[in-house]
UniProtKB/TrEMBL annotation:
Main location: nucleus
Organism whose genome encodes this protein: Medioppia subpectinata
Keywords, comma-separated and alphabetical: Nucleus
Protein name: Serine/threonine-protein phosphatase 4 regulatory subunit 3
Species classification: Eukaryota, Metazoa, Ecdysozoa, Arthropoda, Chelicerata
Subcellular location: Nucleus
GO cellular component: nucleoplasm; protein phosphatase 4 complex
GO terms for biological process, alphabetical: DNA damage response
């Protein structure tokens, strides 16, 4: 059976102030996760679709009328009504609304908007909704006629201005009252009457009345209604509106806004616009922006959102202006032609650039698809080649405006600029990226504002993160552009760093004579390099290592400008934070921690940012257990750092270093338990036994030794995967043999049996190696020792893969290699005899 109790008809107020039927359905109240609150839901009875989903807000005024009708405003200019088929359903939903808002269900208006009403609203109930709901909900006619809750405006006379202003102030806090007041102002042409009164009062110079009109029109603006703005901002009324706001009661004398707009502010057509509609729209937009930003008083915290319609008015005007200009292809071609023409006068070019900048600024109001078409149109007209010309101009106004234009282009589509730069690689000697870098370096502003802005553009261009989205179109964009940048542009970027650190007296000059502007420029460049270190692991690493760039940068640590010293330290910290052994070995080989330690010592323990930054760098080395740097710091600088005891960092580094050394010693003296008896200093074959030992190794030690092998054998063309496979194969072979030998020993086999098993195991291993193991150039073949192999051969074979740190006590490899196979057999047999006797 159909639930008729909650059967409703949904209505919405349209732009003509008439109620539109949105459908019939069933209403319910439920918590909606998306809206995060209790909401009213209406589902269509025909197909179950959702007709309404409205969150019950605590400050929304709901009205219950004629026992079966609930009315409320859903934001500005959007009123809704639910007409119930039965009273019980209306009472049930009304009780839920009152429960959410914390009101008594016996009230008819949840926000008490009728409180302190005067005679202006006496006819509300008489002309309200009773007639509108006389019929059944299915057949009812439109609700809430335009006379509902109507507002009666006082006569527009100078002696009733206080009454008019009081009415405005009373209606502003309540959405429904604001709506009805706006309707009354519009239908009675009340604004035009007030403006006529303004002209009369201005001629009479009645300043007090003009001050009251100022307050009245301020409140009309705060009604935030588009129909009222269309009247006030029309060409007929605009100048009078500006004149009203000249009489601010808080100012001792009137402002002269109209005089400024008519005389001082002038509209220039740098290129004639043939469209009169476009010209009128530009004039209107400028004046309305002037009203919003200059004429209107600064809104309070409670008023800042009450002028959204005015902002929307300006927004849509800008969209229309951009669209009209974009459609005029002849105008745009002429614009770019004059910008690129060398014969164009300087003043004319300045106006053209400022127009283009304003044009791009307006384009930010476009929707994404329209904005994409906009920048594609500019690209086809040659905006990037034009920017190459105007960026190099000496005029500061042109240069700053061109940087703003370039910022808009790069922020929207960095790939477009990268693609243009790659096209220049084979065609031109001058690159747009180098022009950007040169303008950043040559910024004459002491504050380097333009340089900072250009550095942001460079970051966007070299950021791999925004290259990923373009891989569908150009899969090689990241590789191609980074190769191009490091080949053609990086040397231009680091030129100031190299120039500041080129001679022997650089330390003294940095400490005494470096200017603040020069130091700030170097700081900007170092921030860019740090960004590259973080995002371009391969390219920047090769560049730094092959040009000793880090060594040059560390000279800046002697600068007298602390912010530059800290920037250099951040750069080093960024490198060490990568925990890249290539960088670590470079730091150790070039002794690059020396200037940092020196600066720490000269700081003399002062508690400042410099001291904290240096200590944090060393603390990172300790906390992350970077062994190579720890050993280097302790062996090179411990005497200088020993006395620093106000932090535990250096004592912790020393302890870590000693523990590392102890582990290395333990490796040299550890004794395997399998197949070897305890040794004494008097053992005759001690060296031979040491050479044949096997012991379990720490996985991290194997990684360190593998890295050491790479360091000592730079020319080896065997890749890391082959080395890792070889190492794993050998360790697994040794482990399998020892495991099998132990199993045979546990079941009572003799050493002769074990030896036979070992030979068969070695034969199987050799066969597997011949098919699985790749040959390794410049390395001894990795073979399993046979009965004819000497212990020294075993050691030599093992060292061909990785250094195991096992050294004979006194005998060299050459001496061990002179032993004959027979003596080897006797030597091994004797050793086994001793093990059996033990």
């Amino acid at each position: 059976m159909t639930d008729t109790k909650r059967r409703v008809k949904l209505y919405a107020l349209n732009a003509d102030r008439q109620w539109d039927d949105r459908g019939t359905g069933h209403v319910s109240s439920a918590y909606v996760d998306r809206l995060k609150g209790m909401s009213l839901l209406v589902k269509a009875e025909s197909d179950g679709s959702l007709l309404l989903e409205s969150k019950i807000l605590a400050d929304t005024a709901y009205q219950k009328q004629q026992e079966t009708l609930i009315v409320w405003s859903e934001g500005d200019n959007y009123d809704l009504a639910l007409s119930f088929q039965e009273r019980a359903g209306c009472d049930e939903i009304w009780a839920k609304i009152c429960q959410v808002q914390g009101k008594d269900p016996s009230v008819d208006i949840t926000q008490e908007i009728a409180e302190e009403e005067d005679e202006r609203f006496d006819d509300t109930n008489d002309t309200g909704l009773s007639a509108s709901v006389a019929r059944h909900v299915v057949t009812c006619r439109p609700l809430l006629g335009t006379n509902s809750l109507s507002v009666e405006l006082p006569l527009c006379e100078s002696d009733r201005l206080d009454e008019i202003n009081e009415l405005m102030v009373t209606c502003l806090p309540y959405p429904i009252k604001r709506e009805k007041l706006a309707i009354a102002l519009e239908t009675e042409s009340y604004i035009k009457k007030l403006l006529a009164l303004f002209r009369a009062l201005e001629e009479q110079k009645s300043v007090r009345s003009l001050h009251k009109l100022y307050d009245i029109f301020k409140n009309i603006f705060l009604l935030n209604k588009n129909p009222l703005f269309e009247v006030m901002l029309s060409d007929e009324s605009l100048w009078d509106i500006i004149g009203v706001f000249e009489y601010d009661p808080s100012l001792p004398a009137p402002k002269r806004h109209r005089e400024y707009l008519k005389s001082v502010s002038r509209f220039k057509e740098v290129i004639p616009l043939g469209n009169s509609e476009l010209v009128a729209k530009i004039h209107q937009t400028y004046r309305v922006q002037y009203i919003q930003e200059v004429v209107l008083p600064t809104p309070s915290v409670f008023e800042e959102n009450m002028l959204s319609t005015l902002s929307s008015f300006i927004f849509f005007n800008k969209v229309e202006i951009v669209s009209l200009i974009q459609e005029d292809e002849k105008f745009l071609r002429q614009l770019f032609a004059q910008l690129s023409d060398e014969s164009t006068a300087e003043d004319k070019r300045r106006d053209l650039v400022l127009f283009l900048k304003e044009f791009c600024t307006f384009s930010q109001t476009l929707q994404p698809q329209n904005r994409e078409n906009f920048f594609k149109a500019l690209a086809s007209l040659g905006i990037l080649s034009t920017l190459e010309v105007i960026l190099s101009m000496e005029d500061p106004t042109i240069k700053l405006a061109s940087v703003d234009i370039l910022t808009y282009v790069v922020e929207y589509s960095p790939s477009m600029v990268r693609e243009y730069a790659l096209q220049q690689e084979n065609d031109e000697e001058q690159f747009i990226t180098n022009i950007i870098i040169e303008q950043m370096i040559c910024d004459s502003d002491p504050d380097l504002g333009m340089a900072t802005q250009l550095s942001g553009i460079i970051k966007l261009l070299v950021d791999p993160e925004n290259m990923l989205a373009a891989t569908v179109v150009n899969k090689s964009e990241k590789t191609d552009f980074l190769n191009y940048f490091y080949k053609h542009c990086m040397h231009v970027l680091i030129a100031p760093v190299l120039a500041s650190t080129q001679d022997d007296k650089v330390v003294q000059r940095l400490a005494q004579q470096q200017s603040g502007q020069s130091a700030q420029l170097l700081s900007i460049i170092l921030e860019l390099l740090a960004f590259c270190v973080e995002h371009h692991a391969y390219h920047i690493r090769n560049y730094i290592l092959h040009r000793e760039l880090l060594k040059r940068i560390l000279l800046l640590i002697h600068s007298r400008h602390t912010f530059l010293v800290l920037t250099a330290l951040r750069f080093v910290r960024k490198i060490i934070g990568l925990k890249d052994e290539f960088y670590n070995r470079h730091i150790i080989h070039c002794n690059l921690m020396a200037p940092i330690v020196e600066r720490l010592i000269t700081n003399n323990g002062r508690y400042n940012l410099l001291d904290s930054a240096i200590v944090e760098l060393f603390e990172f080395v300790r906390a992350e257990e970077i062994k190579s740097l720890c050993v280097y710091i302790m062996e090179k600088f411990w005497k200088q750092l020993e006395s620093i005891d106000y932090v535990r960092t250096f004592k912790g580094l020393k302890l870590q270093y000693e523990q590392h050394q102890d582990r290395l010693k333990d490796k040299d003296t550890s004794v395997p338990l399998l197949l070897c008896p305890p040794l004494t200093p008097s053992s005759p074959d001690r060296n031979s036994v040491l050479l044949s030992r096997r012991f379990r190794r720490d996985a991290r030690d194997l990684e360190d030794e593998e890295e050491m092998w790479f360091n000592n054998d730079d020319d080896d063309d065997c890749d890391a995967n082959s080395l890792s496979d070889s190492l794993n194969y050998k360790l697994e072979a040794e482990y399998d043999f020892n495991k099998k030998a132990l199993e045979r020993k546990n079941i009572g086999l003799s050493y002769q049996d074990i030896d036979s098993v070992k030979k068969s195991f070695e034969l199987e291993t050799n066969q597997n190696k011949s098919t699985l193991r790749p040959s390794t150039p410049r390395r001894a073949p990795l073979t399993t020792p046979t009965s004819q192999s000497s212990p020294s051969d075993i050691t030599s074979s093992r060292k061909g893969l990785v250094d195991y740190d096992i050294q004979p006590d006194e005998d060299s490899d050459e001496e061990s290699g002179d032993e004959s196979p027979d003596s080897d057999s006797e030597h091994i047999s004797a050793k086994r005899q001793r093990l059996s006797n033990s």
